[in-house]
Amino acid sequence: MSLFKARDWWSTILGEKEDFDQGCLCVADVDNSGSGQDKIIVGSYMGYLRIFNPHPVKPGDGAQPEDLLLEVQLREPILQVEVGKFVSGTEGLHLAVLHCRKLCVYAVAGTLGNVEHGNQYQIKLMYEHNLQRTACNMTYGPFGGVKGRDLICIQSMDGMLMLFEQESYAFGRFLPGFLLPGPLTYSSRTDSFITVSSCRQVESYKYQVLAFATDADERQETEQQKHSSGKRLAVDWVLNIGEQALDICVVSFNQAVSSVFVLGERNFFCLKDNGQIRFMKKLDYSPSCFIPYCSVKEGTINTLIGNHSKMLNVYQDITLKWAAQLPHIPVSVKVANLQDLKGVIVTLSDNGHLQCSYLGTDPSIFQAPKVDSREINYEEYDAEMKELQKIIKEATKTQGILPKSEKHRDLIVTAEVSPDLDAESQAIDSEVKAEAVPSVTVKVTIQSRVTAQKPNLAVCVQAPLAVTCDQFIFDDLEPDSSETVVLSVFLKGNCSPSELEGSCMVSYDTPTGIPKVAQCSFRLPLRLICLPAQPSKAANHKLTIDTNKPPVSFLTIFPDFVDPSEEDQSNVLGFQFLNGSKTTLLASKTSQRYRIQSDQLEDLWLITKELTLRLEEHFKKQNCKDFACSFSGSIPLQEYFELIDRHFELRLNAEKFRELLSERAVQFRAIERRLLTRFKDKTPAPLQHLDTLLEGTFREV
């Protein structure tokens, strides 16, 4: 615990229920302003891309509307954001955004604004690459020693390095002995890619070796092709560090030699270019992120390391120079130049707390007042106290009464979900194998108190749920006007969704050109994805929820799934999902417990969440404020890991099946060639000759 806190210079909270990780933060002069001031680029797993340019009036101020230069939803999770020279024909900086199955490169530009919010910023898609494999992370640099441009290397979840020469795909190579992806970086000094494998060792691969190795896309080769077109991918050097790595970074400063820094789970390593250890530091805490940022003394390098105790430690090589307390656990840390202030520390937490801070202490300006020897006038103090109490009383009476223009937003969007399923299902192109796929109607209403220009409504639900229409564009809304649209939601994919919540977002411009957003959320009925079914007595997976209140009859909290005439449904209930799997819910008659059981572990979640939500709503109506649910059992990690293993086994089997098909295609082409060679003279051959030929060929297959 440090006596000092990181001094808050500027901070904000990003979005709501959004997740962030190590690659979601980047700082750079992304709009090529030439001022030397960095912008803060943040991407989230919900697909939101935000660019900030903080300008606090005084240290500690929160974010102002003009600090947010750009906010756009890209509809796909953002794994990593980087800024570099990614577009051919120019040395300007561009923004690379990595999605699970796509790499997009954007140009960020601002136009001079004529309102109080300053310039308006937009992004323009320069090019994109659709990936054949699921991406994990990426790195960039002047691969092969190219001048004036940066190339991009993406590491896939199955161990393939995909290299892109800006607008074109170059080649792909599989890492040998791969199991799980690790952090990846590029060293321009040695022209090498450095990663940490699942064998807990740091590995370096030369770019030239990657370029001349056997192409990962080649499925079949003859012996002659194997010798002529490439060679096996060989590692340049290896260092066993004995633990998994959180991050890896290559730095080179004027006063220090080029070094490779590796942040492990319990140790911090600094390596030379050839893989030899320069030094290592054993950490007595669990680190979360790091960044080597400068060299203030010849031969040494300063490094910032954040940890899970909300601490930020400053090291000079292995010597701890400073420690400061943060208000959150950082998952990513950067150092930026903002508003002519150099060395601002930018940290990001996994739930979206973005903070710019600086180190140091604030001097105390308190001075002891001079002793006043005058006698106290108690009557005067009593009169002043009564006056203050009167002011406090009046303020308490009027608390919460605000002018209408401040209390109500300019534009309000509401979503109303129909209590009943659609009489005629509106589901289209559904992959569900059920006899009937239900749908439910959602009525969205937009009410505007001011003129709203170019209003655009977007409706989002979690896959595999889908909507009949997710985008609506309206004409300009006049003051005190409204628009209403109706759409239907249904289950499109043949599996259960992770949640039954949806959201509506309206983007519009005010008459002065200021962009604004209004949003709301809605909850879909459980009947949309499952039906009542006979309860099952036995199940492979069981979960017990404890409460502090007597059990509630299912006739009360699940009226849409029970038949009132059947009393045996008061404490036991069955659910069948549209994909066919079943889940049973039981309420104890003697204790305050509920049990959820199913043959599939993944089917427990939705019923458990629906149960807790309905119980909370029930006791809230009863004006009970101390209701609580708890889980005292052991977390089913073993079953969870088995589920992941089955997923990867299916994936590996699919890969082997595709390889087998490819091999069979080559062999059948060989059959075709043999048949053509045998009968090219068009001379009729005895049928037994053909049978013999085919029998020998298929024996080879």
TrEMBL record:
InterPro entries cross-referenced by the UniProt entry: PHTB1_GAE_dom, PHTB1_N_dom, PTHB1, PTHB1_hp_dom, PTHB1_pf_dom
Domain annotation PTHB1 hairpin: ranges: 634-701
Source organism per UniProt: Nyctibius bracteatus (Rufous potoo)
GO cellular component: BBSome; membrane
Domain PTHB1 N-terminal: 1-363
Official protein name in the record: PTHB1 protein
Keyword Manganese: no
Coiled-coil region list: 371-398
GO biological process: cilium assembly
Record domain PTHB1 GAE: where: 435-522
UniProt cross-references to PANTHER family, sorted A to Z: PARATHYROID HORMONE-RESPONSIVE B1 GENE, PROTEIN PTHB1
Keywords of this entry: Coiled coil
Any Pfam family matching the protein: PHTB1_N
PTHB1 platform domain boundaries: 525-632
Source species, domain of life: Eukaryota
